[in-house]
Amino acid sequence: MNSELSSQQVQDIGEQGLLERLQHFCSPEIIGDDAAVLETASEQSLVVTTDVLVDGVHFSNVTTSPEDAGWRAAAANLSDLAAMGASPLGITVGLGLPGEVRVSWVERLYQGMTECLQKYNTSIVGGDIVRSPVTTLAITAFGQVHPSQIIRRSAAVVGDAIVVTGVHGASHAGLQLLLHPELRQNLKDAERTALIRAHQRPQPRLDVLPILWKILDSPSKIQNPKSKIPVAGMDSSDGLADAIIQICRASGVGALIEHRQIPLPKVFDHWLPQEQALEYALYGGEDFELVLCLPQELASAFVQHLGEGAAIVGSITSGSTVLLHDEQKKFPDRVLNFSQGFQHFGQ
Amino acid sequence: MNSELSSQQVQDIGEQGLLERLQHFCSPEIIGDDAAVLETASEQSLVVTTDVLVDGVHFSNVTTSPEDAGWRAAAANLSDLAAMGASPLGITVGLGLPGEVRVSWVERLYQGMTECLQKYNTSIVGGDIVRSPVTTLAITAFGQVHPSQIIRRSAAVVGDAIVVTGVHGASHAGLQLLLHPELRQNLKDAERTALIRAHQRPQPRLDVLPILWKILDSPSKIQNPKSKIPVAGMDSSDGLADAIIQICRASGVGALIEHRQIPLPKVFDHWLPQEQALEYALYGGEDFELVLCLPQELASAFVQHLGEGAAIVGSITSGSTVLLHDEQKKFPDRVLNFSQGFQHFGQ
């Protein structure tokens, strides 16, 4: 790219010019009509989720390249689909841009989005580009799920095991390393890079759904095929504590979480005090793992199939309290709530 | 509403508080999961369209109440669905808000959206509310259409009649009356109100689709049922000239438009010079009528069923020129293009 092109601003080529430059990031079949048309499989429900991201509020050039901002935005929406048990059909991208934004910045944003989408076999199927005083990204993702496989927050029952599909705290650690480079002391380069990567390129866990359906398949054969799947869940985008509390509230149950069962990045052992490591995991957010509640026997088989990082972190209890328990009794029992995280990490 | 409540700002109750206040505007079944789940009929294609609207760019408190801004935003998206032949399944609403926006303003915005959606038997099925320095509204609408009934811009063929489903120019006239109240001279109150209403409360023409399918039903019975419907089209949200030119470009054809056949609001006869009336109709935009191209015989029957305002305004020709012809020869033949409208009315 020559310097003239790389310094070109949105106002130099206009919204129509920008649309033309971005067309190759989009599904070819969707261009040139009032709306996109998508084929859906028969007997599937449509799942829809939407996020708005604002420059300076949800992303920033300080910690995030445009490619990473794009990846993260796409990943967050795909994670919401995964949390419902749905496979993606596509996303629409609404973009508000000040005239002085560089065209290359927008192209890099779309590059990051499409890298993430391609990894999960989906694409941008529509959008809108408008002038705005502040860069704004509005993504709507849609997916499909068989009605019998919808994962809801409200389906947890007493006795369920609580499964997390991977380690927690890495994304927040990566963000802290970007904001405070001096924290890299005591970290090898590869450890630092891995944590930052966890923040910049989170992986929506669409990959765990086929494993989940396989595990559920054997017992369901003897159940009524129309019965609901015995799984509750959501993603941990707002933190592990938030996910567990939300599921408990929606299901009218409580939970007992075993402190030592929460999977953390190995590097935390020698890098962070235990209390801080726990807080990163519970309240850091943006790990985009799934938190799923299912019968103990199925949960054990599920975790075994998922491999490293996945764990049963506790169980669903009667009542409404989410209790954090340390079997080593180094920490007293604590009730988890939403606000603790906001006090520590809120803006 | 007492004065304390009416002056409450978004920052006083936070995004969570605002979400709770807005829940009653949304479909009850969608609240409390990572994404909304919608049922679709079998053998339907999914149609998706998205718009971003920014305060000061796309709406303004000068000409638009929050209710009207909400109505217009919903109507524009439903019109895009109608233009594809699709019936609505729901919309998602992404909202960026400065903290000092009044809660009552947001409630009135949602009131306007839901009034429009309810009229067309659909609803808000999901959303996101975030902080932003500028009020931003990102709407994504979903609809469904049988694959054989998808209306595309690219399907016009030489000889087709060009049908408009209603009068053009009223919305732009209404906007001018709001911006320049002195223009109301020579207008009765009811005439002025009707034009302003056309601007503030445009009607997406979802109502014409059942009529269209009925008209198409008889001949299609003797056709191959899998053959595509012989209809091309889009909506006239960006002006009648834009719609005709877009269809011609996408279809690789031209058009001959009869000046005197373009349906105008009756009041234009004594209120506007002929040339200006024509410009309002061709380039004013936001009338949200459908512009459809179909065989002459079907077009005649269709227009008859649609009633007042609907008209055949011309026909599809070979070549690539969109020619405006005045049979009274008061105006010379003119080639229509995109830029003329922008020169007259662009920002």
Description of the molecule:
2 copies of one chain form a homodimer. Helices cover 38% and strands 21% of the residues of chain A. By secondary structure, chain A is of the alpha+beta class. Chain A folds into 2 domains: 3-146, PurM-like, N-terminal domain (60s Ribosomal Protein L30, Chain: A, 2-Layer Sandwich), CATH 3.30.1330; 151-345, Alpha-Beta Complex (Phosphoribosyl-aminoimidazole Synthetase, Chain A, domain 2), CATH 3.90.650. In chain A, the strands form 2 sheets. Chain A has a 7-stranded mixed beta sheet with strand order 7-9-6-10-8-11-12, with helices on both faces. In chain A, strands 2-5-3-4 form a 4-stranded mixed beta sheet, with helices on one face. The first copy, chain A, is globular. Residues 220-225 and 341-347 of chain A have low confidence and may be disordered. At the A-B interface, strand 1, strand 2, helix 3, strand 3 and strand 4 of A face strand 1, strand 2, helix 3, strand 3 and strand 4 of B. Strand 2 (45-54) of chain A pairs antiparallel with strand 1 (36-38) of chain B.
